[in-house]
Amino acid sequence: MTKPQEILIRGPNWTGDWIMATPGFRALRAGFPEARITLAVRSGLEPLATGAPWFDAVVPVSSYGHGALALVREAKQLRGTRFDLGVCLPDSFSAALLMRLAGVREIIGYRRGWRRALLHRSVPLPSDGGRRLMLARELHVLGLVEALGCARLGTDLELFVTAAEEREAHDRLDKDGIDPEQPYVVLAPGASYGSSKCWPPASFAAVGDALARAGARVVVVGTPAERELVGEVVSAMTERSVALAGELSLGGLKAVLRESKLLVCNDAGARHLAVAFAVPCVVMMGSTSLEKTDLNLDRVQILIADVACRPCYKRECPIDHRCMTRISPEHVTARALPALASDAAERWRGAQWVVREGGRLEAAA
Length: 365
Hints:
Layout: E1 6-10, H1 15-20, H2 22-31, E2 36-42, E3 57-61, H3 68-79, E4 85-88, H4 93-101, E5 106-110, E6 121-123, E7 127-128, E8 131-132, H5 137-147, H6 163-175, E9 184-188, H7 201-213, E10 217-222, H8 227-236, E11 242-245, H9 250-258, E12 262-266, H10 269-276, E13 281-285, E14 300-305, H11 322-325, H12 329-336, H13 344-347, E15 351-355, E16 361-363
Parallel strand pairs: 1-2, 1-4, 2-3, 4-5, 5-6, 9-10, 9-12, 10-11, 12-13, 13-14, 14-15
Antiparallel strand pairs: 7-8, 15-16
Helix pairs in contact: 2-5, 3-4, 6-9, 7-8, 7-12
């Protein structure tokens, strides 16, 4: 293949997956420094790319989830650019179809089912003896990029904050009496995947109160759809906190997290935002496994309950949600408080913890 002049990347559809793709974006830009690179990404995720040096243009994929006719219309709009190369990061049929209908000259993606017919270069999924490997998302994306001859430039996650995003965050915090120069912590009780990933609001509130009594201001964040959930956390707290559900753009949330001392969250997108800015993070992991997200854990402490039914990957728990309820506020508070110490930047280290039956907390083997 001659060196492409116009490259189209179909980006991941979820916040965490997008952020874990940043090592791949970095490698692709370095591998094709003269090309014009356009990122097509699900509407709403564009702020993840602001300030990044890897893209020449970012276009929203507004057809996502809106059916075939919307996809065809969007493909016609993309046709005008005449892309030489398409890098299809989602493993879905529709993502590859969009690129094919857009007339991309050469499309590369992972080989999965019927979509193989839509790809010009289909890369085999990583496997071991015929069994598909559960690979960290960073390596999954890098596998495609390396198939194009691009060398990896590390696996660190990377995000950027613009001056406008920083102003938005500072103005919003100032409105609630929070000085960004003073220590504040962030609680993120939501997860777009489903309630199975969510630690109880009352438990978040108990941890928030403990952190507030230790001297930190508490900010509770969420999407517009999570206003009720965030309200439950704030209402259950006895100490003062600030609710910012739907009050910030995604870009503003980046800036708020970058300046925070700590994030306490579920296994959801906010976790990866914090990791990209090297912010200490305590994560309660319930229905999902760590196998696809087991890189970049230097600043992450993960708590998992030792229950036989996890990981189930169900969006809603059909029983008693024991994978989350067995993780107590005391367990989380003990892991979170050290992040407030003056020397936390040097001393904080990632770790994995298991809550055994009876409430005993042990370091994971």
